[in-house]
C-alpha cells in the first residue's frame, strides 16, 4: 500500500512538471531589413567573430526583413553581413557594424 502511494505521488509530480526549460521574458527582436536591388537572388549571412550564421534567401528586386538570432547579438558586438549571390562568385561583405539587441539594421544590395 505504501509503495502504491509513493508510486502515485511520483506520477503526479511528474505530470505537473514541464519538459521545456524555463524561459524568461522574450527580449527585443533584432531585425535586418534588406532591399535587394540586384537581379540575382542572395543568400544572406551574419558574421560574428569568425562564425557565419545563415539568415535566409532574398530574391532579386525584393524587400524582406530577417530576424537576427538572439545568440548572435547577445552582448554588444560588431557584426558583418554577407550577401552570397546565387550563380556568381562575388560575395560582398559589409564593414563591421555595432549592433545591440533590439536594433533594426537596413541593408541595400545595389545592382552590379
List keywords for this structure.
single chain; 112 residues; Immunoglobulin-like; three-stranded mixed β-sheet; 7 strands; 17% helix; disordered N terminus
Kindly describe this structure.
The protein has two helices and seven strands. The strands form two sheets. Strands 3-2-5-6 form a four-stranded antiparallel sheet, with no helix packed on it. It has a three-stranded mixed sheet with strand order 4-1-7. The protein is α+β, with helices and mostly antiparallel strands and 112 residues long. Helices cover 17% and strands 41% of the residues. Strand 2 and strand 3 (51-58) form a beta hairpin. It has one domain: Sandwich (Immunoglobulin-like), CATH 2.60.40. The chain has helices spanning 2-16, 70-73; strands spanning 30-36, 42-48, 51-58, 63-68, 77-85, 97-99, 104-109.
Summarize the structure.
The protein is of the alpha+beta class and 112 residues long. 17% of the residues lie in helices and 41% in strands. Strand 2 and strand 3 form a beta hairpin.
Amino acid at each position: 500500500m505504501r509503495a502504491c502511494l509513493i508510486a502515485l505521488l511520483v506520477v503526479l509530480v511528474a505530470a505537473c512538471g514541464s519538459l521545456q526549460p524555463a524561459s524568461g521574458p522574450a527580449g527585443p527582436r533584432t531585425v535586418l531589413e534588406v532591399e535587394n536591388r540586384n537581379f540575382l537572388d542572395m543568400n544572406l549571412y551574419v558574421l560574428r567573430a569568425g562564425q557565419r550564421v545563415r539568415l535566409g534567401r532574398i530574391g532579386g528586386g525584393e524587400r524582406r526583413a530577417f530576424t537576427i538570432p538572439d545568440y548572435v547579438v547577445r552582448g554588444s558586438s560588431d557584426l558583418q553581413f554577407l550577401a552570397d549571390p546565387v550563380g556568381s562568385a562575388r560575395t560582398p561583405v559589409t564593414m563591421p557594424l555595432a549592433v545591440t539587441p533590439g536594433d533594426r539594421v537596413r541593408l541595400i544590395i545595389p545592382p552590379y
